Amino acid sequence: MNLIGKDDIIKKLSSMKKSGRMPHSIIFSGEEGAGRKTVARYFAALLICENPTEGDIIAPCGECRHCRRILGGTHPDFIIPERTGKTLIYTRDTMRQVVSDTAIMPNDTDRKIYFFPDFDNTAIQSQNILLKSIEEPPGGVQFIFTVTDPGVLLPTILSRSVVIEVRDIKGEFTAEINAPYFERASKLSNALLSGDEYSFSAVLHESSDTTEARARLKKTLKAFEKILRDAVILCETGKCDNPASPCEEEAKALAKKFSLRRLTAYFDIIESESKKLSYITNTPLTGAVVTANIFSS
């Protein structure tokens, strides 16, 4: 299970897991569409994954029954309290129910995880009801919040929580890539879907090693990275967190055809080779290497 483009967050959460000091309250802040909810589910899976990856980075496997049920929204110990009213807020009654529920033992793990997405509009009175449980949580109880601005929360909640900013990487892609590169990335997607290695290679072919050729190839790979990122998120969550993407249909087709493991492997290859273009001077060879790695993975 991976968080595309969020290596800094993966490292932070992995360090927490390694140290054995997972925060009982964590807040993921950032703009709408930055991937806060995806990060929150990743963290929840990391808490109770049965087969986390080992090595430098500890991450949830994404395949055990706990990971699958968290991603599918069906885990009995991953609880998302209801928001009500026209403005979809967490009411005082909801908070009282949560506080009462924390005293009940978990169903299927050693933890109960309460996830409060979009906590921004929660009234101070409602936050106060939850405060005691955050200050002195029952054993095995975790709270996860997503907000746009952490400043809307009570200072006492903030002081007892770990706050992690989730940055939007979509803007980094779209700010530097224009339509021609998305068109080339779309051709790469279609070639991959049809298993057409020759056409895939033709899109990436550069006959010279000029600065222009290197920039053109790098921007094409960045655009394809963007499509693969959206496909990974679709495969993980069943939802596209960037419906305005110029290659949304390609991402949907990739998510339908390939497994999450395969899509993540494709993304890692493209991301790695794109970074190498900053210092590798053999641009024609890079296109051939990318093609070979993609079709042999």
Question: What can you tell me about this protein's structure?
Answer:
With 297 residues, the protein is of the alpha/beta class. The chain folds into two domains: 7-165, 3-Layer(aba) Sandwich (Rossmann fold), CATH 3.40.50; 170-296, Zinc Finger, Delta Prime, domain 3, CATH 1.20.272. Helices cover 54% and strands 8% of the residues. The chain has a five-stranded parallel beta sheet, covered by helices on one side. Strand 3 (112-116), helix 5 and strand 4 (141-147) form a beta-alpha-beta unit. The radius of gyration is 21 Å and the shape is elongated. The model has no long low-confidence stretch (mean pLDDT 87).
Number of strands: 5
Q: What global shape is seen? A: elongated
Strand order, main sheet: write it out.
2-3-4-1-5
In N-to-C order, the SSE pattern is HEHHEHEHEHEHHHHHHH
Total count of domains = 2
Radius of gyration: 21 Å
Instruction: Could you tell me the CATH topology label of the largest domain.
Output: Rossmann fold
CATH architecture descriptor text of the largest domain: 3-Layer(aba) Sandwich
Please count the helical segments: 13
Structural class: alpha/beta
Nearest-integer average pLDDT: 87
CATH superfamily of the largest domain: P-loop containing nucleotide triphosphate hydrolases
Span of the ends, CA to CA: 18 Å
The percent range for helix content is: 40-55%
Low-confidence stretches: none
Largest sheet: 5 strands, parallel
The percentage of residues in β strands lies in: 5-15%
CATH class annotation of the largest domain: Alpha Beta
